[in-house]
Amino acid sequence: MKKFLLSLLSFFYLTALSAQIALVANGNENTVTPIDFNGTSPLILPSIPVGSFPVFIAQTSDGRFALVANSGSSSITPIDLKTLLPLPDVAVGASPNDIVITSDNRLALVLNSGSNSVTPLDLTGAIPVALAPIAVGANPQSISITPDNRLALVVNQNDNNVTPIDIATLTAGVTIAVGSEPTRVVISSDSTLAIVTNSVSNNVTPINLTTLTPLTNIPVGTSPAAIAISSDNSLALVCNNGESSVTPIDLINFVPLTNIIVAEAPAGIQISNTLALVKCTGTTSLIDLTVSPPILLGNVATGIGLPAFLKELIAISPDKTFALVDSFLAVTPIYLNAPSFQLNVGNNPIAIAISNKFALVANAGSNNITPMDISTPIPTILANIPTGSLPTDVKITPGGSLALVANAGSNDVTPLDLTGASPVPLTNISVGTGPGVIAIRPQGNIALVVNGGSNDVTPLNLTGPFPIAMTNINVGTTPVAIAITPNDGRLALVVNNVSNDVTPLDLTGPVPVPMTNINVGSLPDSIAITPNGNLALVVNRGSNDVTPFDLTGPIPVPMTNINVGTTPLAIAITNNIALVVNKDSFDVTPIDLSGPVPVASSNISLSLGGMALSPFSVKIFADKALINCSETLTGGGIIALLNLTTFPPQLTGYIEGPYTNQTTALAPNSIAFSPSGTFALVGGTTLNSDVTPVYFNRTLPFALSVSTTGGSPNTAVIFASSSLLPPSNFSGKQIVVNALFQKDIVNFLTWGASSSGSPAAFYKIFRNSALTDLAGTVSGNTFSFADHGRKKCVIYTYFIVSVDANGNMSSPVVITVP
Question: Is residue 232 classed as helix, strand or coil in its secondary structure?
Answer without folding.
Answer: coil
